[in-house]
## 1
Amino acid sequence: MNITSFAFLCFFAALLVVYYIVPKKTQWGILLLASVGFFCVSGEPWLIIYPIATITVIYGGALYIHRVKEQKKKQIALSLIVVLCVSLLCVLKYFHLGLLAPLGISFYTLTLLGYLIDVYYELGEPETNILKLALFGYYFPTMISGPIIRYRDMKEQLFVAHPLQYQNVTYGMQRMVWGFFKKLVISERMGLVVDTVFNNYTVHSGFTVVIAAVCFTFQLYTDFSGCMDIVIGASETLGIILPENFDTPFFSRNISEYWRRWHITLGIWLKDYLFYPLLRTKFFTNLPKKLKAKCGKKTAKRITTYTAMLILWFTIGFWHGGVWKYIIGSGLLHWFYIVSGEVLEPVWKKLKTMFHIKEENKGFIFFQQIRTFVLVTIGLVFFRAENVKAACIMLGSIFKSWNPEIFWNGAVFDLGLDWIEFTIAIVSLLILLVVSRLQQKESIRARVARQKLPVRWILFYALLFYVILLGNYGPGYTAAEFIYQGF
Amino acid sequence: MNRKQIMKAVLFLCGFLFILQTVTYIIRTNGLVKDRFTGFYAEKDNTLDVVMIGSSPVFPCFSGAKMWGEYGFAAYPLSSNMQRPMAALSLVKETRKTQEPSLYVFEMKQFTANEEDMADNMAYTRGVTDNMKYSWNRIDAINRAVPEVSERYTYYFDIFKYHSNWKTMVLPSQLACFRYEKQEPLKGFEFKDEYYPMEQVDYSQITEQEPIEADYEGYLRELLQYLKDNDLQAFFVVAPYVMEGEEKQEKYNYMQEIIESYGYEFKNLNEDTEEMSFDFGTDFYDKGVHTNAIGAEKTTAYFGKYLKEHFDLPDHRGDTSYKSWDTAYEKWSEQMEISRKNLKECIDKKEYTTQEPED
């Protein structure tokens, strides 16, 4: 069930009614039933055996790890379960067995492994009710594309009573509409240009490729963050606040900052459960010591960190799909950006001093934001292209022809969007930009809530009908699945 | 959530639904079918004397304006292309919300079709459902016509289909449809100024019967029972066309027996073409399926007279509340002059239409 479908809206409306009329103690049970139902109607119902098996193993494993005294046994149990879950994930996702992969396997696997590792490190108590753990693992809003939640952050919210609160419902629905705006109005439009160029990349060059690459960056952002807005909003109406996954990433001044603001929960998960544990391994604790004599303490420490980061970024790339275009586009390239940025930091500093550039100069900040955007866009060309070779050809073709005339001879409107559609896309992106800017200063919903009722309602109706009229959905359109749903 | 908040939520939702309905009415695809239906809804309450229900043979064949000018009763076509037989009952119910016609005329050609061919094309269903005002009857019409439950929502909320028409919102003619009521100057009639020569086939001697599709027979009996239960006067006809084989005639024979068993009259106008001086060589528009303007003029003259003589229909001419009908007759007469000229030219030059018939 696609969450932009009418079926989902009906499902959600029905859930909302039932959720708030049943006894409060049973609300979490309703959510579990809804999650199972959502899973079953979203794909092959029998695939539910995978999550059931995973939850059983994780549940038993966590209790075992918590009870057993010997560290060795704990370690063996943890390792076995991690290897089992990750292997299952890899086999199903990355060895062309996609059809056998249940919905959200990447997300629920990480979510449940995080819980298990927390129990191992005694950062949280194990859950004794398997059904409650099942709800945590398969809470339907997070099933599609995350956010990846942590048990210690969510347990209070998931299982307590949630009385019907006006603000939760209205704020949640506003957030959902905003998500629909991003997905149906912007992302789907951008997708038309992207498909035209990326699917026929050999015949395009110069600015055409640049436009398509930029469009894909916006497509992916509005698709993924739109999906997050819908699920976070849906959850908010149920009184459950999910962690944010995006924080206006294109306002980032460098790649490190970008990754703190893009797919935030994945970044945190990988840092908490991969990067730091990796640094705590014998190999990485010993590495600086070994290197210290050869290259000095500071450099040895740096090399160690960069090596661990290489593994981290490789994993991030691999997680997106076990092929090189993802490994490079979403992994290694970003590792290279970050490492080279740090290595060259003294050079940048010198240049800044030489040209009297102040860190907080608005023009400089803007330059940094554009630079980050360009670097991210290059990575995303790999991400979207057919393969690494195609991505390289596309990037190379940008410099093969100088064709700025496409902006005035109408050729730009042959890429899948006529001038009206292009204008809608640009205006919508500007709306998104303005709202994102305002959001940085203060919650936009709180700001709107302070307005008088007629103003508020005009704004809500305007947004609703903007999406209803200009969204790409319904017969005649096939709204694509969310890009991250496949990961 | 307190009472005030509940009130606000309800009001907001009502406002949303109201705007949604208005916007949908405006952006439903513009065209002759929309004009015909908005024209029907724009007619003053209880002013129509005859409502003609059926498929595309109706609107280029029976001119309500001419019948008004010559016989004084107001006849309006509630017809759409390839109108599916189950829609007939829904349209009678729709009519009864605002009108009390003395007579319902049903054109029966579509009852001889194959449901398989009809159901595959959603346009045939939407021709009716997407031109009805929002109501329970419309929901019922959708439920009857769309068996796939999961698909019905795009019919209930047809904005799912028409939202991409938003560009037409700037057209005054579309904006005028905000209540789905807009006067139709020709009272739903469509002029066809082309011709295609055909030869008459006479199946009147065939007396055998061939059952129509079981579902269609069910819809027909349901309709007849409803008309009978509600004491409504009805007349079942077939507009002139070149029948494609004996099987069609056998099906009409079959329907005739059913219709007459409920006490209603059935008339295949193909059997009266001589009386109406209908010329198969010049009076069809597209390969013998639909009449052109001249064919329509002849058929309407004969048909209007027949209705006047056989049914108790009033003469409202001179009544000020029927002023729009006087205007429609004037308009029709002017346009008819042009059409006669155009058709004469085509016939003289033997310029046949290239238009393929839709049904």
Note: The beta strands of chain B are 50-54, 75-79, 103-107, 234-238, 265-268.
## 2
Amino acid sequence: MAPEEIRTAILEILEDIAPDEDLTALKDDVSFRDQMELDSMDFLDIVMELRKRYKVQIPEEEYGELASMDSTVNYLTPKMADISA
Amino acid sequence: MYDTIIIGAGMSGLAAGIRLAHYDQKVCIVERHYTIGGLNSFYRLNGRDYDVGLHAVTNFTAKGAKKGPLARILRQLRFKWEDFALAEQCGSRIAFPEVNLRFTNDLELLRSEVAAAFPDQVDAFDRLISRIDDYDDLDQDNFALSSREIVSSVISDPLLVEMIFCPLMWYGNAREHDMDWGQFCIMFRSVYMEGFARPFKGVRLILKNLVKRFRSLGGELKLRHGVKKICVDGQRAVAVLTDSGEEIVGKRILSSAGHIETLRLCEDVSEIDKRQIGQMSFIESISILNKQPAEIGCDETIVFYNDHEKFDWQRPVEGLCDPRTGVICSPNNYRYSDADGVLPDGVLRITTIADFERWSNLDEQEYARQKMVWFDRAIESAVRFVPDFRRYIIDTDMFTPTTIRRFTWHDNGAVYGAPDKKIDGTTHLENLFLCGTDQGFVGIIGSIMSGISMANMHCLRD
């Protein structure tokens, strides 16, 4: 998947986790925690959804890489390069 | 072979089941009873719908709120705010001799009532609130501190201390006399800071949404499947054996049966420490009226009353019940939408502290007689605090500690379970975990949160 496709995939997951949230105004360089007030349970959910949908494994010590959209896409780009969108 | 077997189809078990089934686990919920819900179930009698336990859903936050337990569980279970269809309370009251404190879902009203009735305590009340704000839910070290000590060190008027404790103990304290500080903070937020709400259709709406979702994700629900034994091999639980002799094999077990109740099922446990069993049980006297309660002046959502200055939270010292304190609740008195309108019947529910052992020792005839006696005594006590509604009663129902025992399987019919909570949900077996009442959180939202957090912590990380 290309970075832009990964971004779309993440948006779909966020939409699922927080259906009441308006994601059109999401700033890619600001942390999810500050914009959406996601907590540790929600981050676990992003990890679990990535595993469920794309079979991507993210070790617990690297959960911090998922702080913002930019950092998440950067982190996932090599991991998801071979996955077709 | 199941990935996870869940014991009990109450709020916590169903919520855990949804989380696990959503992440493609093969999950089976086994439930002893013929229906779902456990403590928070529902039934139909003489053509009317009743909730079993529900007075109010606590932890109310408005649509769009991102913080708080309600927002959290909606996200975790992928529900919309509308799915729970919560209507806010009209207003509630703590009623002691000579002093009343009204409160709603806006803490400011309670604060102004405290300022009016206890002018020299309002700064202390604010300090108490900041102590509660600072308490971290995950703080296990300070969870079991004495909240009576902490609250009394901040608020110097003993009557105000008793009045603050009254609703919080009533709505979630398994321990007699005192309350764990962690439980106090969680209850204070859920009752006074977030507040009360109710779906027009009652608890059945929430339960039906949970069970529908669980099944749509492929989860299996086996009703009328009581667990007789948890089969153990070394340090691991390997299967459950049902009353009918069926063996169900799973990689792990999540039990909402209660801490002691779960240990008793384990074939490797021979001795149970009975001091850990909860003592607080209740009767509930339900009156159906031929009017809406508000028409006869009963327009409040919940009234917590206590007829003397000290609030004694303990099993009755003598007799079947202690009618000096109680809770009066009307499911009619919520701000339902215009589309829903009003509930078809007027309902007033009165909860009174009761003694399990004395109720369970009655023979059948005496049990029936005492139910009638205590129905009347409970109402007689309550109408000192709300308008007398007795002449409008057209139907009644009642439950006792033995009814609670039958539906929840909790020892002693202890509504809020055992006093010592097992916050991390672990047991002596490496793949047997607890959720529900004895894991720590109470109320509808609390028990759903318990199921979710134990599923996340123990069942999803491999």
Note: Chain B is about 30% helix and 20% strand.
